[in-house]
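User: Hi! I'm a student and our assignment asks us to look at how structure tokens line up with a sequence. Could you show me two examples?

Assistant: Happy to help. In each example below, the sequence comes first and the structure tokens follow. Example one:
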Amino acid sequence: MTVLALDLGSRRIGVALSDPSESFALPLAVIERTNLRSDIARVLSLAQDHSASELVVGDPLRLTGERASASDAVDRFIAKLEREFEGKIHRVDERLTTAQATRTLIEANVSRSRRKRVVDKVAATLILETFLSRRGRMRS
């Protein structure tokens, strides 16, 4: 079974995918946001194309653990997604994933223009790695 992860931003959605054994998280795509309806349709299309039975969505929290201002937008996105996606949807704390993804790309000497195009899917990969790691510990 594969799992699709989303890093929801106001301009872009980073997407990552697990391998069927759920051992690895791989960056997949960046969706340029347009409107809620088409953003959901594009996510559902990717989920279907890759036979994803579960979705993981980054939950934006403040460093204190409180809900951030972006939480309401994520709630609306997930509510719409739940009406149309037949599988399970999980939330994962996404604090600092974009910052971590940016640091990783800088350390890899990725140019600023290239970083801008890939940072969201790298952040989604980190979100998915967190989810898969926790799930693996729960199964052990």
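Example two works the same way, sequence first and then tokens:
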Amino acid sequence: MSFNVASTVAALILTLGQTGTQPFVGTWTMNFEGQTFARLELQTADVTLSGRISLGVVHITDQGEIDQVNQPAINFTPLFDLSYRDGVLVFARKDGDDTDRFEMRVNGDTAQLTFVVTDEFRQVLKDNGLPAPKPITLTRMKP
């Protein structure tokens, strides 16, 4: 019987990577007053996680909370730079010339999605009297 250490280690790494990201797989939404503001779709092919996101246009209060959906989520953009570490999925999407970055933490069939705000953007918000957006809670859709 022969034993190939490199093949065994590679298989173990692939299995661990897939197990770590498996809780993120699915379709996640955030609704406000009956309108879908956010829709995130994550899937795996072999062991590679991929997905797309659609974000609507909302009005945010002085406290950084959504109080109105101006346009529901309808247009999807692909995700890139997906990585998983310490229970957090990190990913990005293009928004015109800008790149939006997010962090996602899953707890069962809900998840916290955080828009990662740069110091520069945080200052722009502050200069305009706006707070940084708070994390939103997504719910996994049942198949």
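Here is something you could point out in your write-up. The first strand starts at residue 26 and ends at 32.
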